[in-house]
Design a protein that fits this description.
This protein has 556 residues and is mostly helical. The protein has 24 helices and five strands. Helix 1 packs across helix 2 and helix 20 packs across helix 21. The radius of gyration is 23 Å and the shape is globular.
């Protein structure tokens, strides 16, 4: 490896002590007993590392094509990290799905739990919770006084999440964690004492959000053009024309809904509406699973089958990547998400389902394509293969480089690919995939429209409030008209879009760029084009922004 790879590897070594929770997420040992410094000084130390690395990287000439890709990726990702920090976005960001307090809670899901040392690490982290949250309060207040604060509504919603995590009648997260580890004696006493401290600190943090930070919160949830442009570029790794993308979202949603009506007729008879087809599917006992544990087992069986059948045919899946676990999340925040394996694969990649409070029955037709999105050929294949390719990629590329447009765009592309490969031939499963795709297209419209407060086109294909200007309330109405999800799950999604500008469109816009990249490769290679080779070559580049991805693929 050359100078660029050496610098990238050194960056990981210097980054891990500044991000102990991040080190646990990527599986770097030695920091499992610590929590991040969430003070303004802690955020500043991370930014200083990025500045130093970029300054050292700039004059280095790549020695190989692989280092050329690595340099492009690092300059793009780290450059945007620094821009977001300097604008105040990073330290002030707090919403219902992404913030430092969410990272602190979620890290316990990935910690080793076998042996006294592992349990002592958990106890130490629980004990460090009060100090970490006090540091975070200081950072949030400092940023708020500078004019960098999240929307008031988001702050109050996160306060409610803190209440759910700490309520003995609800998630009761910290006490359930401590009591469920099988510890005894002094170690159990430490766990229980520190769980009580973490519970009290989290409840206090929720109160801080309500009483001290909320008065600084923005009245408007709309990000506005400047903040939205930064966020969109960060999540996509590409600059796009927002108004063209907004118009395309309407076209794409209309196309998907036409396809859904065709499939609805297959399910419920000629002329049947999509809603009627959904009623038929939901009434089918063969497509319903009672109980979240049984649903988890069903997810596992679908994921295992995909790995077994795709390996050696459409993909060459490395042995270490052939295991993915379906898990139930310990909180009820809602949604399905993926966590990567550790660097040494001692902790496998996992699909998590955070079951909403009160949900006891699950529809398989809605989630078949979601398993492909989170598992194989989606996130698990993409991320697991990247971590495994130490022969091609430096540690920063394998462990730290992530771009939502690249990763979520690939996972959405993977859903469509499984349809192309015949895995969604069942009309119900195909309707579920199309409904998921339609949700992502709806996100493009709603996210851009709400945050830029655009005018709804007078000639929009749905006749939806033509000529009016988007508001959060109109966004909710549009989602309700075009998405077939449980109301509490959809409402969480809506809150997420309002609090995390630019992230939700990265799925569908990312898929759009992936599909364009595939068409470009077909045009370049002509008769020599191979879909399997395209997937191999693209995934071997690791995760990177979508503009650097297109540049790299054009050189292959």
């Amino acid at each position: 490896m050359g100078q660029i790879d050496d610098l990238a590897n050194r960056y990981v070594d210097e980054w891990a002590p500044l991000n102990p929770t991040g080190a646990t997420f990527i599986g770097v040992p030695g920091h499992d007993h610590e929590l991040d410094d969430l003070s303004p000084e802690g955020f500043g130390a991370q930014a200083d590392l990025v500045r130093r690395t970029l300054a050292e990287l700039d004059p280095i000439d790549p020695e190989t094509e692989a280092e050329n890709v690595a340099k492009d990726a690092m300059q793009e990702r780290l450059g945007l990290d620094l821009a977001r920090y300097e604008s105040g976005d990073t330290a002030s960001e707090i919403n219902v799905i992404s913030s430092a307090v969410h990272g602190l809670r979620m890290v316990f899901d990935l910690m080793p739990v076998q042996g006294d040392e592992a349990l002592a690490n958990i106890a130490a982290r629980l004990g460090a919770f009060p100090r970490a949250l006090q540091q975070y309060e200081r950072t949030l207040l400092q940023e708020a006084r500078r004019g960098n604060a999240s929307a008031r509504v988001q702050l109050l919603e996160v306060a409610e999440q803190c209440a759910a995590w700490t309520d003995p009648q609800r998630d009761n997260f910290f006490h359930n964690l401590a009591d469920g580890l099988g510890a005894e004696g002094a170690l159990l006493a430490d766990l229980q004492r520190n769980a009580a401290a973490a519970t009290a600190a989290t409840a206090s943090f929720g109160q801080f959000l309500r009483t001290e930070l909320a008065p600084y919160g923005r009245d408007k949830q709309a990000a506005g053009p400047d903040r939205y442009a930064r966020a969109s570029q960060y999540f996509l790794g590409a600059k796009v024309d927002q108004e063209e993308t907004y118009a395309w979202g309407f076209e794409e949603l209309a196309r998907l809904e036409r396809e859904m009506r065709v499939v609805a007729a297959e399910i419920a008879g000629p002329g049947a509406t999509v809603d009627r087809a959904v009623e038929v599917l939901d009434a089918d006992p063969a497509r319903r699973i009672p109980g979240k544990e049984a649903f988890r087992d069903w997810m596992q069986s679908v994921a295992d089958k995909a790995v077994a059948e795709l390996n050696g045919t459409h993909f060459d899946i490395p042995p270490a990547v052939r295991t993915v676990e379906a898990c139930l999340a310990p909180t009820s925040d809602g949604g399905i998400y993926y966590t990567a394996p550790s660097e040494d694969f001692s902790r496998p990649g996992r699909m998590w389902w955070a079951v909403p409070e009160g949900q006891t029955e699950f529809s398989t037709w809605r989630e078949t394509s979601t398993v492909y999105h989170e598992g194989v050929p989606g996130h698990h294949l993409q991320i697991g293969q990247t971590i495994q390719r130490a022969d091609l990629l430096n540690r920063w590329q394998r462990l730290l480089c992530w771009c939502s447009g690249h990763g979520e765009g690939w996972a959405l592309y993977a859903e469509r690919l499984m349809d192309d490969l015949g895995y969604l031939a069942d009309p119900g499963d195909r309707l579920g995939m199309l409904d998921n795709q339609a949700l992502r297209a709806t996100r493009v419209i709603v996210d851009i429209g709400m945050h830029l407060e655009l005018v709804i086109p007078r000639d929009n294909p749905f006749g939806f409030h033509p000529g009016e200007r988007w508001t959060p309330e109109l966004g909710w109405e549009f989602l309700r008209q075009h998405c077939r999800m449980q109301e509490d799950v959809l409402r969480f999604e809506w809150k997420r879009y309002l609090g995390w500008p630019g992230q939700a469109p990265s799925y569908k816009v990312g898929e759009r760029i992936w599909l364009q990249a595939r068409e470009d490769a077909k045009a370049r290679k002509g008769a020599a084009f191979s879909l399997k080779d395209f997937h191999r070559d693209a995934l071997n580049l690791g995760s990177l922004g979508l503009d650097p991805l297109r540049k790299a693929l054009a050189r292959i």
